[in-house]
């Protein structure tokens, strides 16, 4: 009897994951209480746990799989981080104390290939994991495009967990978050809110479909979940305000804005926060300084939202895709794109330290967790 290579590789991964977890559990002690920055780096998929107390890596967990976006979410209560890896297809749950892989799901099945860009989120109680699935059926002579779905997984399902439910959803969703009431926030061409019980969804913020004759169409880069430590879904957009005739690019004011959803109340808005002078890939509000927006790519910039003006700006050593604050707002980490995390003082934008990674962070986000 022939056994498929895919089945063999799945069984081998499960065996290796269990073996590695048992070995790691014997060698590692539980993490001390404190605040940690968690991010993923290549080669492969390595989970890096950084103590914000001494700003150094205290633990690294090698998942032993191919990389993907490296999007990570974490449950502080169970001390498990969930990583989107293996060519944007699979999710692995890693015990932060032992590095044991305690959850996994291979989303592709049979001749249906599934890709998830960076849309990964936990329910408020941590018992359910959601992904947005882009699906295609591979046939002998062509690919059949299938309708996208939100897949729902029980986090207690262990290895090789199957989805317990599929909810039809909108296309081109790249990031997700969730309200405190359990509804999902879906970031794509527009920003949607989905009731997971009924499966119904509505537009909260118009992005691609935003229409205001005073402004150019919005340009949104939607790759990094940014609600860690301030409980607000955030993504940047750029636009132009026409000073003369609509469409006259030579007589326009170029601006940065951000689309935001308060995850405690569901309140949504999309204010302008400053002038557009250089490209930024992502941005976030500084905790305990709700009027300050920080953005990064080749420059690290701080803005005053109320006055729509730039506060501070410094060039950075190389491109960084995303950023994260400690809960008190006193430390700012920038990461992604290369093999380090840089620590900055947000009051002055003085660089304080570089934290080396074993490989580049690429598209991975950084999530803060207190355990």
Write the layout of secondary structure elements.
Elements: H1 5-27, E1 35-41, E2 46-51, E3 56-62, E4 72-75, E5 80-85, E6 90-95, E7 101-106, E8 112-115, E9 120-122, E10 128-138, E11 143-145, E12 149-154, E13 165-168, E14 175-178, E15 184-187, E16 191-194, E17 201-205, E18 219-220, E19 232-242, E20 252-262, E21 268-269, E22 272-275, E23 280-286, E24 289-297, E25 299-304, E26 309-315, E27 322-325, E28 332-335, E29 340-345, E30 350-356, E31 366-370
Antiparallel strand pairs: 1-2, 1-31, 2-3, 4-5, 5-6, 6-7, 8-10, 9-10, 10-11, 10-12, 12-13, 14-15, 15-16, 16-17, 18-19, 19-20, 20-21, 20-22, 23-24, 24-25, 25-26, 27-28, 28-29, 29-30
Task: Tell me the β content.
Answer: over 45%
The helical percent reads under 10%
Which regions are unreliable across 5 or more consecutive residues at pLDDT < 50? 1-25
Q: What would you call the quaternary organization?
A: single chain
Biggest sheet, open or closed, and with what strands and sense? 6 strands, antiparallel
Distance between the termini: 49 Å
**Tally of domains:** 1
Q: Indicate the CATH architecture.
A: 7 Propeller
- Please give the number of β-strands: 31
Sum this structure up briefly.
This protein has 371 residues and is mainly beta. Helices cover 6% and strands 47% of the residues. Strand 14 (175-178) and strand 15 (184-187) form a beta hairpin.
